[in-house]
């Protein structure tokens, strides 16, 4: 990668990392304070509901990747938002059906289950805006949304927990924060679109007359695509005007994203089945280390994803991503081992028994971070085969967990082994596929050094 291209990438990684780190710190603060305020048994239920919430928000993660990919390919903002609205409606319907089921399976109140699940469709709408910003390489605004949205979501939950309320009111407060975050993200996206220069004089006049920021964004999108692909502006405008994004593309991405999400959350859910209440609560706290290692390098995939959507650059993007992730993962595992004695000081002495296992939790998260980028490359190329491999690994891993795991150590050991084998296989498949795609002529034009 040349110095000219490397500098914008480093800047983008820094921005997105700052936004993601802000989001992660807010999320981990919620987990740590909840573990202290709710106690071991109460926190186990709360953490399990958050895990279910993450699993039900899988369509949001898949939608962001699909929207970003299609924006890179020239799709207009209006089509992306229409797709996000349809997906949010489907997720809302699914949440209504699942609420009583989750309540019965996890032995929690229906109000708590509903509070956790009702956040999912709001996260879908938020993800649509993030996908637009990511696809257009507006990483400064994306970083703002990543960090700010989580703060807005977490703050009401923390306030209610601090006031002595239980999981149900706290989760409903978080849902209200998610709604506000989605609204503010939409306004930020519109403002960013309106700030871009529109070269087409006629369209510019219409924008100035109507003040329609979305018209400005669509016009800019058309102009960018025309300049990059060499397609006449009139033809690009005609094609953009009739662009329709179907939910089938999201369903295909969901298969891939759901496999990753299920693999990353399965051990936490199984802990409620195979461990007693206290050990399940300790395992939930240890899982925070896994989440830190998993989400810490999130910016790598976010920034390099537009390159992964271009077959001629996918192999290089994959190599760069893997090198960075291995380095970050090693530092994270070492950091977890060194900082382990501090965990009981923050969460309480009840969690002292897992102090020596935090590095193993971090290793699981680091492996899943590598798996995430490998699966992102599959979504960027609209491939779903790697999802089947991940599901097979998950099925085998869960079966072994349920039958053989009877302690925190055995459960995290099996979970980490499952992550290691699955990551090794999927990464090999992804690297070979990226190399093969590089030999084909791509229909997607090259992005510039700044990603546009």
What sort of overall outline do the alpha carbons produce when their principal axes are compared?
globular
Q: Percent range for helical residues?
A: over 70%
Uncertain segments of ≥5 residues (pLDDT<50)? Answer: 1-5, 197-219, 221-241, 441-452
| Helix/strand order | HHHHHHHHHHHHHHHHHH
What is the gyration radius calculated from CA atoms? 22 Å
Mean pLDDT across every amino acid position: 80
Major sheet description? none
**What fraction of the residues are assigned to beta strands by DSSP?**
under 5%
Q: Helical region count?
A: 18
Intertermini distance: 16 Å
Strand tally, please?
0
Characterize the structure shown.
By secondary structure, this protein is mainly alpha-helical. 84% of the residues lie in helices and 0% in strands. The chain has helices at residues 3-56, 58-72, 77-105, 110-117, 119-135, 139-162, 167-195, 201-210, 213-229, 233-241, 247-274, 277-295, 298-308, 311-339, 343-347, 358-380, 385-404, 408-438. Helix 1 packs antiparallel against helix 4 (110-117), helix 11 runs antiparallel to helix 18 and helix 13 (298-308) runs antiparallel to helix 14 (311-339).
């Amino acid at each position: 990668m040349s110095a000219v291209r490397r500098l914008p990438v480093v800047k983008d990684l820094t921005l997105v990392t700052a936004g993601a780190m802000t989001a992660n710190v807010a999320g981990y603060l919620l987990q740590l304070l909840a573990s202290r305020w709710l106690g071991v048994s109460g926190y186990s239920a709360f953490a399990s509901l958050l895990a279910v919430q993450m699993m039900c928000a899988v369509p949001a993660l898949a939608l962001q990747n699909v929207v970003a990919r299609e924006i890179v390919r020239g799709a207009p903002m209006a089509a992306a938002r229409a797709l996000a609205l349809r997906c949010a409606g489907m997720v809302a319907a699914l949440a209504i059906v699942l609420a009583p089921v989750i309540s019965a399976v996890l032995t929690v109140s229906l109000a708590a289950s509903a509070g956790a699940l009702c956040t999912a469709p709001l996260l879908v709408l938020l993800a649509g805006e993030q996908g637009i910003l990511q696809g257009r390489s507006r990483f400064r605004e994306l970083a703002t949304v990543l960090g700010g949205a989580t703060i807005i979501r977490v703050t009401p939950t923390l306030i209610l927990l601090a006031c002595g309320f239980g999981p149900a009111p706290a989760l409903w407060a978080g849902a209200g924060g998610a709604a506000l975050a989605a609204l503010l993200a939409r306004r930020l996206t519109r403002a960013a679109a309106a700030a871009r220069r529109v070269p087409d004089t006629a369209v510019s006049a219409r924008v100035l007359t109507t003040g329609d920021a979305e018209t400005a964004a669509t016009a800019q999108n058309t102009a960018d695509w025309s300049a990059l692909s060499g397609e006449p502006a009139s033809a690009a405008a005609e094609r953009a005007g009739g662009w329709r994004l179907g939910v089938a593309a999201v369903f295909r991405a969901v298969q891939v994203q759901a496999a990753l999400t299920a693999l990353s959350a399965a051990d936490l859910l199984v802990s409620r089945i195979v461990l007693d209440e206290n050990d399940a609560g300790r395992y939930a706290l240890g899982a925070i280390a896994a989440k830190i290692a998993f989400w810490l390098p999130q910016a790598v995939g976010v920034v390099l994803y537009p390159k992964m959507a271009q077959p001629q650059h996918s192999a290089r993007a994959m190599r760069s991503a893997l090198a960075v992730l291995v380095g970050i993962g090693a530092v994270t595992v070492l950091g977890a081992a060194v900082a382990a004695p501090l965990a009981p000081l923050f969460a309480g002495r009840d969690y002292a028994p897992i102090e020596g296992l935090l590095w193993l939790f971090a290793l699981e998260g680091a492996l899943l971070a590598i798996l995430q980028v490998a699966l992102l490359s599959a979504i960027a190329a609209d491939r779903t085969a790697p999802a089947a491999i991940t599901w097979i690994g998950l099925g085998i891993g869960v079966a072994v967990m349920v039958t053989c795991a009877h302690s925190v150590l055995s459960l995290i050991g099996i979970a980490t082994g499952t992550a290691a084998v699955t990551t090794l296989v999927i990464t090999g498949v992804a690297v070979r596929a990226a190399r093969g795609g590089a030999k084909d002529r791509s229909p997607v034009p090259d992005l510039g050094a700044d990603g546009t």
